Amino acid sequence: MHPTEPRAGLGPRRGVRIGVDVGDVRIGIALCDPHALLATPLETVPRGSGDIERILDIAVDHEVV
């Protein structure tokens, strides 16, 4: 089973989720609380070389599901 697939009778997996708003010049990153009730802006990543690596680092650092 993939970690984000709903588990039988348990509903979706709880945890921090990441929101990504891709623009022409920068990428906005937001994180939600573990119960998926509120998303909060975290960081703006400049577009260009290294942007994907930075987003992956954020996901790992915040244990995004």
Write a compact overview of the structure shown.
By secondary structure, the protein is an alpha+beta fold. The chain has 1 helix and 3 strands; from the N terminus they run βββα.
Which key phrases capture this entry?
65 residues; alpha+beta; 3-stranded antiparallel sheet; 3 strands; 31% strand
What separation lies between the terminal Cα atoms? 14 Å
Shape verdict: elongated
Nearest-integer average pLDDT: 89
Query: What's the helix count?
Result: 1
| Share of helix, binned | 10-25%
User: What's the order of the H and E elements?
Assistant: EEEH
**SS class:** alpha+beta
Low-confidence stretches: none
Major sheet: size, sense and barrel closure?
3 strands, antiparallel
Strand tally? 3
The radius of gyration computed from the alpha-carbon positions, rounded to a whole number of angstroms, is 13 Å
Spatial order of the strands in the main sheet? 1-2-3
Query: Beta fraction of the residues?
Result: 25-35%
